[in-house]
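Work Package 4 report. The design task specified in the project plan requires that, given a folded chain encoded as structure tokens, an amino acid be chosen for each position. We show below one input record used in the internal validation round.
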């Protein structure tokens, strides 16, 4: 992390964002995705990007995928 600068690169609800010493923008989800969503292997709790804008887009993509997977799981018939 860069000394003397705030850890957060920009506010994204539910995600802790930071910039590495190498200048990459990273985010990790504060609360893990539900187990059934994680089990698919389609979402990542930690993501990285070159810019804050790209990071925000990647966070949004992960959230959309998790919502889609979670909805699919809820729509399945129960046994």
């Amino acid at each position: 992390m860069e000394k003397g600068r705030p850890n957060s690169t920009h506010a994204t609800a539910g995600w802790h964002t930071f910039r590495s010493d190498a200048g990459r923008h990273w985010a990790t989800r504060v609360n893990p995705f539900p187990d059934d969503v994680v089990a698919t292997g389609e979402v990542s709790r930690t993501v990285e990007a070159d810019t804050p804008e790209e990071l925000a887009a990647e966070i949004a993509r992960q959230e959309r995928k998790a919502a889609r997977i979670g909805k699919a799981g809820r729509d399945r018939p129960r046994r």
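Residues 23 and 48 are 11 Å apart (CA to CA). Validation will be extended to a larger panel in the next phase.
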